[in-house]
Amino acid sequence: MEYSLHFGAVWASFDRLLSGLAIGLALAVVAVAIGTVLGLLAAFAAVSPYRPLRSLAGLYVALIRNLPLLVLVLLAYFALPQIGIALDKYQSFAGALALYSGAYLTEVFRAGLLSVPKGVIEAARSIGLTRLQTNVSVVAPIMLRNALPSLGNTFIGMFKDSSIAAAIAVPELTFEARKINVDTFRVIETWTVASGLYIAACVVIAALLRGLERRFPKF
Amino acid sequence: MNKPQPLLAIRGLTKQFGAVEVLKGVDLDLDQGDVVSIIGSSGSGKTTLLRCVNLLEEYQGGDIVLDGETIGYRSVNGRRHRLGDRALSRQRAMTGMVFQSFNLFPHLSAAGNVMLGLRKVLKLPKAEARAIAETWLARVGLAARADHYPSQLSGGQQQRVAIARALAMNPKLVLLDEVTSALDPELVQEVLNTVKGIAEDGATLLIVTHEMRFARDVSSRVVFMEQGRIHEEGPAAEIFGNPKSARLAEFLRNTRH
Ligand SMILES: Nc1ncnc2c1ncn2[C@@H]1O[C@H](COP(=O)(O)OP(=O)(O)OP(=O)(O)O)[C@@H](O)[C@H]1O
Ligand SMILES: [Mg+2]
């Protein structure tokens, strides 16, 4: 069987792949930003002394983590409008990915919270910081620094999962690659280039995150 | 003659952990400027007593009165209720605590550690908080280390930052719990000298320590705790030179060598 490589047709549409990459990154950034807030709230709830809050956090994590992301995305895009919540495809995907990443980050942050030394928290309380002030000024920064590597991994994971947005025709990298594939029949070339872009983006993100980790003092 | 009311009055303090009674009715008074050391064997309740005074622990019976204010609880129709977070926080700010394990905020510089309470609790502007922090760091001999992070400081330096952090809040009373126990031997003296310095400046200190010579040196009074009670108390010279109870004499014999 003969297959001669011709990248020309793919390069001709390279700008579409790049814009797809940018859309995927933007979706991941928005989703992880919202997911970080959700994860922080849920993690604090998960370790709070109030049982209803703990249950709520547990329910959130259990529900979301036991759903495939694709199902969550389809629910958000097709099912929500049925009950009067109409989101466009970007909003529904970003929302679904935010919920999804939030559930994973809840576990990351919960572990981070448990890693904050009890004595340090008591030191904050002993100089008169309220519980809220202690959480904001002491617990959260320590926990975030400890959670930074996991936060980075989650971000990379969510960026790769942005390919699932292709299922609801969000023109991100996978969606564009599939279109180019269909238009040009350059199967190997298209998917090789798309894969190269995913890998390159992830390597760059990982390097940036390592740089960020180094900027913060080690404890 | 009327004795002025003590700065700190602990009355009949009892504390249980589950079914275990750890404090069995402790009474202790401190006047302004007093330096009182608590000695006693491991498990006698020294740390627990300090933690109750700093409101880090709840207690089941008795009262703690700080500068005329009963702290930690309020009585409604004869029933005790723990105060809410805000009130407890305000009362905690009136006492400083220095911990055995330093417990510095690892994400903040030495100055940042001292400034946090000044900014968040006393609501001082940043420049003023920084100035106070620098003054106190200089006072504990760490003027040049203001911008170092805890991980860049020795144990002795960390503990001196912790002392500066507690004192910068201008507390009525400072609690020190075995502040040199976690230190390498060669670092103990610098911390003890710092504590001695603040004692000489007139701070009111309640010190738990295993450093008998230090206790003898700085204390106006020494308290010997045994099994959740104050077993004997008196001037340092009396406690160390002329113990009345056999138990204290035995404790001192066992700790001297
Ligand atoms: N959080 C806790 N839960 C249950 N029991 C506790 C707790 N903290 C302390 N205890 C118990 O209370 C008793 C008094 O402890 P505490 O730490 O006050 O003693 P201490 O006099 O400070 O001892 P040391 O000299 O070893 O520091 C001990 O029997 C200890 O096991
Ligand atoms: Mg102790």
UniProtKB/TrEMBL annotation, chain A:
The primary location reported for this protein is: membrane
Determine if Methyltransferase is one of this entry's keywords.
no
Q: Which CDD domains match?
A: TM_PBP2
Query: Any keyword Membrane?
Result: yes
Entry membrane topology:
Multi-pass membrane protein
Domain of life, per UniProt, equals Bacteria
- UniProtKB keywords: Amino-acid transport, Cell membrane, Membrane, Transmembrane, Transmembrane helix, Transport
What SUPFAM superfamilies does this protein's entry cite? MetI-like
Q: What positions does the domain ABC transmembrane type-1 occupy? A: 21-209
Q: Where does it live in the cell?
A: Cell inner membrane; Cell membrane
Q: Where do transmembrane segments lie in this chain?
A: 20-47, 59-80, 191-209
As for family, the record states: Belongs to the binding-protein-dependent transport system permease family. HisMQ subfamily.
Functional summary from the UniProt entry: Part of the binding-protein-dependent transport system for glutamine; probably responsible for the translocation of the substrate across the membrane.
Q: What protein name does the entry list? A: Amino acid ABC transporter permease
Automatic annotation (TrEMBL), chain B:
The chain positions of domain ABC transporter read 8-252
Report the subcellular localization. Cell membrane
Q: Which PANTHER family match?
A: AMINO ACID IMPORT ATP-BINDING PROTEIN (PTHR43166), GLUTAMATE_ASPARTATE IMPORT ATP-BINDING PROTEIN GLTL (PTHR43166:SF9)
The protein in question is named Amino acid ABC transporter ATP-binding protein
Q: Say which family it is in.
A: Belongs to the ABC transporter superfamily.
Bilayer disposition of the protein: Peripheral membrane protein
CDD domains attached here?
A: ABC_HisP_GlnQ (cd03262)
What are the record keywords, sorted? Amino-acid transport, ATP-binding, Cell membrane, Membrane, Nucleotide-binding, Transport
**GO MF annotation terms:** ATP binding
| Annotated PROSITE patterns | ABC_TRANSPORTER_1, ABC_TRANSPORTER_2
A Pfam cross-reference name: ABC_tran
Could you list the residue ranges forming a coiled coil in this record?
Answer: none
